[in-house]
Specification:
Layout: H1 2-7, H2 32-49, H3 62-85, H4 92-99, E1 107-111, E2 114-115, E3 119-121, E4 127-128, H5 130-142, E5 149-153, E6 163-165, E7 171-173, E8 176-177, H6 185-188, E9 200-202, E10 204-209, E11 225-229, H7 234-240, E12 244-248, H8 251-259, E13 265-269, H9 270-279, E14 284-288, E15 295-297, H10 305-320, H11 326-333
Parallel strand pairs: 1-5, 1-8, 11-12, 11-13
Antiparallel strand pairs: 2-3, 3-4, 6-7, 9-15, 10-13, 10-14
Helix pairs in contact: 4-10, 5-10, 5-11
Length: 375
């Protein structure tokens, strides 16, 4: 029995473990390095073997928020562009384009040519006077050099037609009229007349030959001949006084008629008569009528509304800018220079014009950020 027991074969039992599933946690007792390697391998398998796990556009709100911010910025910029460049009153460039200024090679202006101190052309063809200096000021602001300005003599009755004449007498259309042109409601109602803000305030007076009895009012010339300019506001006052009016197109023609004895006096704006008195103080007597009516001179631009705004802007700059003394220089060099000579025989001064530029309001013009239109 003992021998048989010894011969009984020993049966070997092999225990086989089932294979590990992918992604299963490492076995207990595995080395730390092996566990880390298995975790890394498991991560790579998830990344490359399961592409459906990659996050798509719709899985996050961040891109949508970024797009919304971009839309808001675009809307703000677009609104600002429209507001700045395409809404509200016109800019200076808009006005220049509408007026046609940039297409003009020269600037044609109708002025008087026989009024010393206001607008006068001497025998050599040189121009001088207050209106001439104001014309140069406006032309400068419009971008024209002095040599690009063309002056043409214009008669009083032709001012509304914007038609002057060259030295040979040929008709010339002008872009503006600066010719001692008083602003009135009747004139503004005309179809081809638009006035700027006034650039000078004066009043009516009368001139006689030296030695004439004292004149206090035009009523003293009732039933007597008084010369005045055709189509002038002075004619209305003279006619109301009962005087016999003699009308001329040029004030120099009135002085010629008075010197011949055809009329007893010349009556028109004091700023005009003051130049004749200053040029020949021993020949004439200048009388203050004490008229409270103000003659406000303006620039007529025909029917060019855009040009009107540009002219008003020039006058506003001159008025509002303390560094701009062009108007003051024009007044000092012309009208103020005549004050000393314009006194009545008794020594009383004759007011020629107010020594301050009239109030000029800022036109409706859009000022761009890089511009400085006026104070």
């Amino acid at each position: 029995m003992d021998g048989e027991r010894e011969r009984t074969p020993v049966r070997k039992i092999v225990v086989r473990r089932p294979p590990r599933q992918r992604g299963a946690p490492p076995r207990r007792g595995a080395a730390p390095r092996q566990r880390r390697a298995e975790r890394a391998l498991s991560g790579l398998q998830r990344t490359f073997a399961r592409p459906e796990a990659v996050r798509s556009w719709g899985d996050s709100l961040a891109p949508w928020r970024l797009a919304a911010v971009g839309v808001v910025i675009a809307l703000v910029l677009g609104f600002s562009w429209v507001r700045l460049f395409h809404m509200g009153p016109p800019s200076v460039e808009d006005l220049r384009r509408a007026a046609g200024v940039d297409e003009w090679r020269t600037l044609a202006i109708g002025v008087k040519d026989d009024q010393p101190g206001v607008a006068y052309r001497d025998p050599q063809g040189a121009w001088s006077g207050f209106d001439i200096d104001i014309a140069y000021m406006i032309a400068e602001d419009l971008g024209f050099r002095r040599e690009d300005v063309r002056f043409y003599g214009i008669e009083s009755e032709d001012r509304a037609r914007m038609e002057a004449a060259d030295p040979d007498g040929n008709p010339v259309p002008v872009k503006m009229v600066i010719a001692s042109y008083s602003i009135t409601a009747e004139r503004e109602a005309m179809p081809n007349v638009m006035f700027s803000a006034s650039y000078l305030h004066t009043e009516q007076s009368v001139i006689t030959l030296r030695g004439h009895p004292k004149v206090a009012s035009l009523e003293e010339f009732k039933d007597k001949k008084v010369c005045t300019l055709s189509a002038s506001t002075s004619a209305v006052t003279a006619n109301a006084s009962g005087a016999q009016l003699v009308r001329r197109n040029r004030v120099s023609e009135c002085f010629t008629a008075m010197e011949k004895g055809d009329v007893g006096a010349v009556s028109t704006d004091a700023a005009i008569l003051g130049g004749f008195k200053a040029r020949d103080p021993g020949r004439y007597d200048h009388w203050d009528l004490g008229d409270d009516k103000t003659e406000a001179w303006g620039v007529s631009v025909g029917d060019n509304k855009a040009l009107l705004d540009l002219v008003d802007l020039s006058l506003y700059r001159s008025y509002a800018d303390p560094k701009d003394s062009r108007w003051e220089r024009a007044f000092q060099n012309n009208i103020a220079a005549e004050v000393r000579a314009n006194v009545e025989p008794g020594g009383a001064p004759v007011p020629l014009a107010r020594p301050q530029q009239p109030l000029a309001r800022r036109p409706e013009v859009r000022e761009l950020p890089w511009e400085e239109i006026a104070p």
